[in-house]
Amino acid sequence: MFDQLLENTILLFVAVDPIALVPIFASLTQGLNKSDIRKVYIQATLVSFVILSLFYLFGTAILDAMGISMSSFKIIGGLFLIAIAFQMVLEQRQSRRQNTAEVALDDESIQSLAIFPLAIPLIAGPGAMTTALLIAETNESNPTEMLINFTPILVIIILVAFAMWLSASLSKWVGPTIIIVVQKIFGILLGALAIEFVVAGIMESFRL
Question: Membrane-crossing residues (predicted)?
């Protein structure tokens, strides 16, 4: 149980990547007073928490309603996470997230920053949503196990909120070089874990 819990936490952590979020949040909220910054990160935290919780609680039911097997979702979800892992290793993901942030600053009002691009897609992006659903697949009918498996989502959301809260201070220490190194390491870990999902999906599909 503990090994599975740790693996799920690591998987969701690298999918959300709160460390890389620090400089983006700092740039998005530059010029805002402390009260406005606080409102933005609290709202972004709550919205992303609700989104990931919904995918965790109802994602499997949605797949069943659409006639999609979990084994098929493991394969496509794993391939999707592998693509994200390649972007992280090749340093493409951070620039893409930064571009998303810059577009939001140009086209959206400051009040909507918490929802776009912070909550969606920077925190609760496709990778995080996919991961939440894959975590839910490990649940049994036991409510206690469902609550325990929900822990990674709660932990990561708290870490994200903490990172945004300290963004002004952390951005001075988390420079581009550190972010690049961390992303490459996380990319390799994410790729390895994603392959496990693909292999498991193939084995379940062909009953190997």
Answer: 9-28, 40-59, 71-90, 110-135, 147-166, 178-203
* Distance separating alpha carbons of residues 193 and 208, to the nearest angstrom: 20
DSSP 50: H
* Helix (H) or strand (E) run with residue 64 in it: helix 34-65
**pLDDT digit string (tens) for 187-203?**
888 889 889 999 999 99
- CA pair distance 167, 87, nearest whole angstrom: 24
Question: Is the pLDDT confidence value at 109 over 80?
Answer: no
CA distance 75 to 151: 24
Task: List phi, psi (to 5°) of 68.
Answer: -100, 125
Residue identified by tokens 């935290």 is 45
Over the chain, what is the mean pLDDT?
A: 84
Integer-rounded Cα radius of gyration of the chain: 17
End-to-end CA distance of the chain: 24
Q: Which structural domain, as residue segments, surrounds residue 80? A: 2-205
Cis peptide upstream of residue 126 (ω within 30 degrees of 0): no
Q: Using one digit for the tens of pLDDT, what is the confidence trace for 124-147?
A: 988 899 999 999 987 766 788 888
Query: CA dist 198 to 34, 108, 190, Å?
Result: 44, 38, 12
Could you tell me how many residues make up the chain? 208
Domain count, the chain: 1
